[in-house]
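sanity check both lines:
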Amino acid sequence: MVVHAMVAIYILARHRIRSVALLLVVSLVIRVGLVFWDLNLSHIVSLPNSGLDSEMFFNYARAVAQDPSLLSVDIRGGAFSKLFGTLFWVTGPLRIFGQYTNVLFGMSLVLVVGLITDLLPLDREQTVKVMAVVALLPNSLILSSIFLRESVVGFLVASSAYFFARWFQSGRGTFLIWTAVMVLVGATFHAAVIAVGIGYVCVSIVYQPTRRCFGVSLQGLAYLAIAAAMVLAVVAKNPDVFLGKFDGYGSEEILFGDVNRRSGGSQYLSGLTISSYPELLLFGPLRAVYFLGAPMPWDIRGLVDAATFLSDSVLYLGAPFLFLRRRKLLGRNERLLGYALMISIVISSIVFGAGVSNAGTAARHRFKLAGLFFALIALSKTSNSDPAAPSLKQVSSSLRKPAPLSRSTATLRISERGVAVQSLEVTSLRKSRR
């Protein structure tokens, strides 16, 4: 593990932007340091979210390693415990190995966001600022250092955002298929990730990437039909894997009982009771806002809550606000992509918010969607004085191709060359006479 970490540091340090390279190295070192703290010094100060759930995931992973037949049955640890249980079956139940692997998923999320910034017209300074937020977000550092599934799901959602952005720019159906694959794999770890895919589907129906405008096209519908057929076939063949979480909601009483359940000292909206589907839709946006912002300033109980709000909640509440505030300053393509991501963010926040009722759980679950918010922040930091003009990426790519010369330009260049040749001949003649 130490050798791998040293090699990873060497590779990260070779990033083309020196400041970003430093951020990546520092991010990896901090995460590895938090792993050692969680395993050896947690009796002094326990890391947030390290405890019951992390122990549950580890115990089930260890059980899978000891009895691989558990891979074929439903266990509480789900796909995360099965994945790490398979790794433990090969290496032995080494917890430090499992948590270091989680660190690598967290760093992979950071690198995927870096790939997204490469698609955008961001200057060096703004790229460094975006990557600083992504690499050093406190909740990200902690959640990727303990034995929880958030980093794995966050990496898959960020990857789906990357492929979706590639499809949005190029219109290639391959990228749309890869987007669906990432969402489906993410849904095996947490079923609510399907909501991210619903947002992508809504956008793919009404957006024409070849014309860079919103509107229904036959090509888009064809790609959508192919992707939908693949998704339905996979889900229908493995319903327990993707939709198992919803099997317990056999009646409205059970569903609304789960929605109204409150637990923990950081619970919010305790006075809100939902008893019908219209009320669920009506209060869905409110619960989504609380999901993104909890703990709200009026619910802060102490220093930890205040730190969580300032270092985490502000990012999730501020990213959509920042984009909407700066949308008129963005290039047309970046603005449209931002609207597309906003659709997925709104749908996902409503779905996740319906099942979360306390700030601690909200801080964990919203990190699964962090890739969408990081991409939105990166989009917001781009700029274009003329919103209808092409982005800087398009301009730079066009500069690589030499433009065809007009007839007058070609004639002018030939005449200039002729004058230069004549001048050279006269100079040579004078030298020979001397």
